[in-house]
Amino acid sequence: MQHPELLKTLKERFTKYKHRHPDIGWDVVERKLVDNPSKLESLRQMEETEGEPDVISYDSETDTIIFADCSAESPKGRRSLCYDEEALESRKLHKPEDSALHLAQMMGVEIMDEQQYIELQKIGEFDLKTSSWLKTPADIRQRGGAIFGDRRYGRVFIYHNGAESYYAARGFRAILKV
Length: 178
Prior knowledge:
alpha+beta; 36% helix; DUF4256; Mannose-Binding Protein A, Chain A; 2 domains; 178 residues
């Protein structure tokens, strides 16, 4: 996807979902994106992996725009991944192609943490059929675990799993600060 086409897609989504970002106009977003081509490249990758990135927050004091994956389900192009490289290396059989943390790093984005995921769920209902790996606190990861979230029965749940596990219905949601 070329950048003019990406900007058009992002603008259409931005306009359609105004409730996600009532405190900022598209002109400010577009200017910041054009001035930051590496961030635009990260958004291209979020879009190509079916994350449907959109602005979810704007901090006027720091002039920081926060984009997040707003696809209804965990992005299709980022599923079937274990949590991190250590977990990937620990698998003896049936290794997935990559890990969530490594792919996020390659894309130039961060994985949502628990609080960001809960905030995202306040502006819509996400992961009704899938789940998303979340940035895991060090003490949990040191014990071999990792956390993920989803929405079931009208509530947001945060669970744990072995970091080496992977499922066709679990991916990760990205955050990008511009």
